[in-house]
Amino acid sequence: MSRAYSMTVEISGHDPARKEAIQAAAEAEWPFEKDCWTDNGEKMNVFGDGQLCGGEMEEEFTERLSLAVWRANGAFCEVVVDATYMEELPHETHFLNENDYARLLKNKPPQTRGGKAGRRKT
């Protein structure tokens, strides 16, 4: 079973001379794209969407990614993973009731956006 995730990663305390090796190591572990990296000299940041498979949990992914980054860096550096499970995000549901139906048909031409009769946050 696979689950869709968006991973945002911040790496700090790394050897700047090993930046390219760190990026390559991270990209081998998750589908980060080269143009998604930012680096201000102290912190490297990247994000990417992909799948955790085979029952791997977020914590296990963090261990796998951190180990790859540490090996590429040649020493410890801080690796922070922000994992967002994409399949159960909060969302809003919008709907119209029969009063809206009557109001819209009588008074206004059809619109492409929903009305305000109902809204649920989940």
Shape: elongated
Q: End-to-end span in angstroms?
A: 25 Å
Strand tally, please? Answer: 6
Oligomeric state of shown chains: single chain
Overall mean pLDDT stands at 88
Report the structural category. Answer: alpha+beta
Count of helices? 3
Radius of gyration equals: 22 Å
Largest sheet: 4 strands, antiparallel
- Work out the strand percent: 25-35%
* Sequence of strands across the biggest β-sheet: 2-3-1-4
What percentage of residues falls in helices of 4 or more residues? 25-40%
SSE string, helix = H, strand = E?
EHEEHEEHE
Task: Detail the poorly predicted runs.
Answer: none
Describe what you observe in this structure:
With 122 residues, this protein is an alpha+beta fold. It is built from three helices and six strands; from the N terminus they run E-H-E-E-H-E-E-H-E. The protein has helices at 19-29, 58-73, 98-107, and strands at 3-12, 38-39, 43-52, 78-85, 92-95, 118-121. The strands form two sheets. The chain has a four-stranded antiparallel sheet, with helices on one face. A two-stranded antiparallel ribbon has the order 5-6. Helix 1 (19-29) packs antiparallel against helix 2. The radius of gyration is 22 Å and the shape is elongated. The two termini are 25 Å apart.
